[in-house]
């Protein structure tokens, strides 16, 4: 195994035992970037010299007995909506030409304090406002979409161009590309991870979280990110928790909710089959399966768009009026649509969100987690704009991808996507676990238990 193939936990163990140096690991990952990045387009910019210097510094500190923890000396990518002092935060948009961040975002500062090594900034759908990330190719099939908006982060991790990455999720932007590229993506509870210094799409829906190769890796990254930030009005003052899943993979007594409604409607048969097989595996581990009805399902799409569109337009108000020609057509159209949305629609979406939170809390008193598909279909071809379901219903690709992930953003509950197999074309399929607010530890425990039933995953084949 080459160092770039290691998971975060494997690399951390090897570094801690002095079997691998941070310099060797960084050089291996940078070599992998040189090899496969031209065909995949995961990175906006690669900070190779900075990465090598940070790796050398980590090596010196570890040799002197000053190891900071499991992330020390481990290379990462940051989605290019996350500020790093002195680097551009382009949000993959011409609107940000010439931009340089003046200070680290809260999360970049915390990862730097943990000793992680920055490889560069990864591509996003422009201003994180989309579900395909057109600049980036899927890690398993370069002719298909990467998913979005954190497509660059997911592809970097799936192809060995980053040991882990940090991303944002407003309607599914961590979990969708994670599922489509066969890696793990965690959207934490709203406010658990601070967003200061992160370009906003929709401030009441935005979350920051990790994309990694294993559930344990995601837990290690989450542990470095949490903590109250007084400069973020939404930041929670939550108790310190050890998120690592532990060795016990038994799930006796755990109640897994299996949706009767919504989550298996208009889902590709191969996706449904793999996810139901994974749910059965949770039962084999001792969990009790409980059928549940998803509340207010008919209002999910209207609520998501009713919140996101006007908030995004408000954020972009100045540049939309002064330099509209610099936006890509799809994003500009959405931003202009937000200017036409009545205030009453936004207020109704807020009321709908309140009711939805209450109803989801009721469901999550009946079960410990809900298990469902992350996305209803695998990665579509890059030129494909719609999906036609067996009953003749035609759905836009972006609407299809966001449909199953957005309830967790509306309600703010945590959600974890884990790979559960591949379709006949070899494309990855993801299962989504949803839990109670601040229930990340339970989600990670369940995801890790399932993960241990499967053989170790190889890097993406297209790479």
UniProtKB/TrEMBL annotation:
<protein>
    <submittedName>
        <fullName>Amidase</fullName>
    </submittedName>
</protein>
<dbReference type="InterPro" id="IPR000120">
    <property type="entry name" value="Amidase"/>
</dbReference>
<dbReference type="InterPro" id="IPR036928">
    <property type="entry name" value="AS_sf"/>
</dbReference>
<feature type="domain" description="Amidase">
    <location>
        <begin position="25"/>
        <end position="444"/>
    </location>
</feature>
<dbReference type="InterPro" id="IPR023631">
    <property type="entry name" value="Amidase_dom"/>
</dbReference>
<dbReference type="Pfam" id="PF01425">
    <property type="entry name" value="Amidase"/>
</dbReference>
């Amino acid at each position: 195994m080459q160092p770039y193939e290691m998971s975060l936990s494997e690399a951390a163990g090897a570094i801690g035992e002095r079997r691998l140096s941070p310099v060797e690991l960084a050089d291996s990952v940078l070599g992998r970037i040189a090899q496969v990045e031209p065909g995949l387009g995961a990175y906006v910019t690669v900070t190779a010299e900075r990465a090598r210097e940070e790796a050398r510094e980590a090596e010196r500190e570890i040799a002197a007995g000053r190891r900071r923890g499991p992330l020390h000396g481990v290379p990462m990518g940051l989605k290019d909506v996350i500020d790093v002092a002195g680097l551009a935060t382009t949000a993959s948009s011409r609107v940000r030409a010439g931009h340089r961040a003046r200070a680290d975002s809260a999360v970049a500062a915390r990862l730097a304090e943990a000793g992680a090594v920055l490889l560069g900034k990864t591509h996003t759908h422009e201003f994180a406002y989309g579900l395909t990330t057109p600049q980036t190719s899927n890690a398993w099939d370069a002719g298909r979409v990467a998913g979005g908006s954190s497509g660059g982060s997911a592809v970097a991790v799936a192809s060995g161009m980053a040991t882990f990455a940090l991303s944002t999720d407003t309607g599914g932007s961590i979990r969708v590309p994670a599922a489509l590229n066969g890696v793990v993506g965690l959207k934490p509870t709203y406010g658990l991870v601070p967003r200061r210094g992160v370009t906003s799409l929709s401030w009441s829906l935005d979350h920051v979280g990790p994309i990694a190769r294993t559930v344990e890796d995601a837990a290690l990254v989450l542990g470095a990110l949490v903590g109250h930030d007084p400069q973020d009005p939404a930041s929670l003052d939550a108790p310190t928790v050890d998120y690592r899943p532990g060795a016990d993979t038994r799930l006796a007594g755990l109640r897994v909710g299996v949706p009767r409604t919504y989550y298996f409607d208009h889902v590709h048969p191969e996706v449904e089959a793999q996810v139901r097989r994974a749910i059965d595996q949770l039962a084999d581990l001792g969990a009790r399966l409980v059928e549940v009805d998803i509340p207010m399902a008919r209002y999910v799409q209207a609520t998501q768009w009713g919140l996101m569109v006007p908030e995004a337009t408000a954020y972009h108000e100045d540049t939309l009026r002064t330099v509209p020609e610099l936006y890509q057509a799809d994003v500009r159209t959405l931003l202009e649509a937000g200017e036409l949305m009545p205030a009453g629609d936004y207020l109704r979406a807020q009321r709908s969100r309140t009711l939805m939170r209450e109803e989801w809390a009721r469901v999550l008193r009946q079960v410990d987690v809900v298990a469902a598909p992350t996305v209803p279909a695998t990665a579509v071809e890059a030129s494909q704009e719609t999906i036609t379901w067996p009953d003749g219903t035609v759905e836009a690709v972006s609407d299809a991808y966001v449909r199953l992930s957005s309830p967790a953003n509306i309600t703010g509950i945590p959600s974890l996507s884990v790979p559960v197999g591949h379709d006949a074309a070899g494309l990855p399929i993801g299962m989504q676990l949803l839990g109670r607010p601040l229930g990340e530890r339970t989600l990670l425990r369940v995801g890790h238990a399932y993960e241990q039933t499967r053989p170790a995953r190889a890097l993406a084949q297209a790479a």
